[in-house]
From TrEMBL, chain A:
PANTHER family referenced in this protein's UniProt entry, alphabetically: ABC TRANSPORTER PERMEASE PROTEIN, OLIGOPEPTIDE TRANSPORT SYSTEM PERMEASE PROTEIN APPC
Residue stretches making up the ABC transmembrane type-1 domain: 77-267
Family per record: Belongs to the binding-protein-dependent transport system permease family.
Protein name per Swiss-Prot or TrEMBL: Putative peptide ABC transporter DppC
One cellular-component annotation, GO: plasma membrane
Membrane-spanning parts: 79-104, 116-135, 141-160, 191-212, 249-270
Organism expressing this protein natively: Planotetraspora phitsanulokensis
TrEMBL record, chain B:
GO cellular component: plasma membrane
Pfam families: BPD_transp_1 (PF00528), BPD_transp_1_N (PF19300)
Family statement drawn from the similarity comment of this UniProt entry: Belongs to the binding-protein-dependent transport system permease family.
Keyword Transmembrane helix: yes
Family matches, as PANTHER family: DIPEPTIDE TRANSPORT SYSTEM PERMEASE PROTEIN DPPB-RELATED, DIPEPTIDE-TRANSPORT INTEGRAL MEMBRANE PROTEIN ABC TRANSPORTER DPPB-RELATED
Bilayer disposition of the protein: Multi-pass membrane protein
Compartments where found: Cell membrane
Keywords from the UniProt entry: Cell membrane, Membrane, Transmembrane, Transmembrane helix, Transport
UniProt domain ABC transmembrane type-1: residue ranges: 94-297
Name of the protein in its database record: Peptide ABC transporter
One of the GO biological process terms: transmembrane transport
Residues annotated as transmembrane: 12-31, 96-118, 130-154, 174-193, 224-254, 274-300
Upper lineage: Bacteria, Bacillati, Actinomycetota, Actinomycetes, Streptosporangiales
Length: 279, 309
């Protein structure tokens, strides 16, 4: 019912369709880069073309290694999209389980979960991630995902717990308990559907934030490493040359910003649609 | 009072646990720092043993951590593996980061609330749409993209601000980096203020105030805005800690010699003591800010004080 109302609200909005189209394109680029890019990752690079600007045959110009920049940027989509979605799904799962357990049972378990959440909430993101990533230099996409989950599950968990506490004493939960439903059934069939909406909105916003965070770590040089291809790495290279060769900075920044912007906008639109007070 | 004591009692174990997690994380950094200090030259075992003992590297992790915390009570952050006290190394750098964070914070507070009020008063108007679109864009653009763009446009092309370094002192050298660092928080402050104001302007007490014949300015300024600022205060408090920690990137772009740059170098050089020292102080600031916000929250909104005590 709520979902159908929300859908009716959303489909009338231009920004919803704009961000949906951008995201569909980004996901397609991540899934089948070969359709969009002429070259494979780091393929057919010619050093003599290094840093040349846009020209016929290479609309985005060439990167430092003389690779076709358009192809490189298309291949960079996969790292961002995959990490963004994987981290958020994992963090959402943690948030749902811990939030339900802590919020529903309360007491000692809740206190324990809340304090552990506080501990991880207090670790500064860039410093914490840098320390871990430097400790394990040979990390790929999955290790990056793990680090970002480790530092990023707290916000949703807190929100989920608050939502569960708000819902757990409502009449329909009492009714279910009277009818003899088990704790697990009450939590997953009755409380969860009524508590998840705001957490889901934050999760969508979170995808954008994770993508930006991952790019920041790449940019600082502690994230993904060559021969991986990612927008953050391209921006890391661009920082030394952008004054003379602005195209190195502009194009990956444009893609990165468009992807993050779309996730954030989509989250905003969904929130507006789910929250009748804002109509 | 009971509420304050309760919150304080919660904050203390969190502080120890967080700093311990960081301490343990830095401890697992691979490589032997003593060997790294010697470079390529072989080190006699005797020297190794003496050095390990001097830096207490031969003791269990928990004992090392306890020793570190005891030192912290006296303001001692340990020493680097070249024998320089960490607190001395960071002495000049705190000022730079604090000035940067303060500039960003004031910028967030003043401009963010102003934009939020302008947008919230005319919901759906041109100003509102512009603020919403602008803030979404600022939130989406990573800080280094904003930073480089600002550096090229305002520093290089227009020549309004110095592009790098701290030669001009405060405020000259800190304005542009501060605005870049604060841009993200500014967008959040503006949006929070706007949403809360829109909601409160529709409430019964605002209608009552208007019906009493109160002037619009007073209704908005005193009645609606005061309640709307509660979530904003929360965000601003927590964000001060984030600004200090998030300064790494901004300091890199504008070449400001703050703690962010120092700690980033130290991580890559495996200077554990510096990393732990800085992070411990940052965690302290972060937890203190959180605590202050929680207490202030109780003052601003009596309902919270009663509900939680």
């Amino acid at each position: 019912m709520l979902a159908r109302d929300a859908w009716r609200e959303m489909r009338g909005r231009v920004v919803f369709w704009l961000s949906a189209v951008v995201l569909a394109l980004a996901v397609a680029m991540a899934a089948v880069p070969g359709v969009f890019a002429a070259m494979g990752p780091n393929e057919r690079c010619e050093l003599r073309m290094s840093k040349r600007g846009p020209a016929s045959g290479a609309v985005f110009g060439y990167d430092l290694q003389g690779c076709d920049y358009w192809s490189q940027i298309v291949h960079g989509t996969r790292a961002s999209i995959m990490i963004g979605i994987a981290v958020t799904v994992a963090a959402l799962a943690i948030a749902i389980v811990l939030g339900l357990l802590g919020g529903y049972y309360g007491g000692l378990l809740d206190a324990l979960i809340s304090r552990v959440t506080d501990v991880f909430f207090g670790i500064p993101f860039v410093l914490g991630a840098t320390v871990v990533l430097v400790a394990f230099p040979d990390h790929g996409i999955w290790a990056m995902t793990l680090v970002l989950v480790l530092l990023g599950w707290t916000t949703m968990t807190r929100l989920m717990r608050g939502q569960v506490i708000a819902v757990r004493n409502m009449d329909f939960v009492e009714a279910a308990r009277m009818l003899g439903a088990s704790d697990r059934r009450i939590m997953f069939r009755h409380i969860l559907p009524n508590a998840i909406a705001p957490v889901f909105v934050v999760a969508m916003l979170n995808v954008g934030n994770v993508i930006a965070g991952e790019a920041t770590l790449d940019y600082l040089g502690v994230g993904l490493q060559y021969p991986d291809v990612s927008w953050g790495l391209q921006l890391n290279v661009a920082q030394s040359f952008f004054a003379e060769y602005p195209h190195l900075l502009v194009f990956p920044a444009l893609f990165l910003t468009a992807a993050v912007l779309s996730f954030l906008t989509l989250g905003d639109v969904v929130r507006d649609a789910l929250d009748p007070r804002l109509r | 009072m009971r509420y304050a004591a309760h919150r304080l009692a919660q904050a203390v174990p969190v502080f120890f646990a967080t700093t311990f997690v960081i301490y343990a994380m830095v401890f697992v950094l691979p490589g032997d720092p003593i060997l790294a200090l010697a470079g390529d030259k072989p080190v006699p075992d005797q020297v190794l043993d003496v050095m390990r003992e001097h830096y207490h590297l031969d003791e269990p992790l928990l004992v090392q951590y306890g020793r570190y915390m005891l030192g912290l009570l006296h303001g001692d952050l340990g020493e680097t593996f070249t024998g320089q006290p960490v607190s001395e190394l960071l002495q000049d750098r705190w000022g730079v980061t604090a000035q940067l964070a303060a500039t960003a914070w004031i910028f967030e507070l003043a401009v963010g609330i102003a934009l939020g009020v302008v947008a919230g008063l005319r919901r759906g108007g041109i100003a509102d749409t512009a603020v919403l679109a602008g803030t979404t864009f600022v939130i989406a653009a990573p800080v280094f993209v904003v930073g480089y763009t600002a550096q090229i446009v305002f520093g290089l092309n227009l020549g309004l601000f110095p592009t790098a370094g701290t030669d001009e002192g405060w405020p000259g050298s800190y304005l542009l980096p501060g605005m870049v660092l604060g841009s993200f928080g500014l967008a959040y402050v503006a949006r929070l203020t706007r949403t809360a104001l829109v909601e409160n302007l529709r409430s019964d007490y605002v209608r009552t105030a208007t019906a009493k014949g109160m002037r619009r300015r007073r209704v908005v300024g005193v009645h609606a805005l005061r309640n709307s600022l509660i979530p904003v205060v929360t965000f601003l408090g927590v964000d001060f800690g984030n600004l200090m920690a998030g300064a790494v990137v901004t300091e890199g772009i504008f070449n400001l010699p703050g703690i962010g740059q120092q700690v980033f170098q130290s991580i890559q050089l495996q200077e554990g003591p510096v990393v732990v020292g800085v992070t411990t102080v940052l965690v302290m600031i972060f937890i203190a800010a959180n605590l202050a916000v929680d207490l202030l929250y109780g003052v601003l909104d009596p309902r919270i004080r009663r509900a939680r005590a």
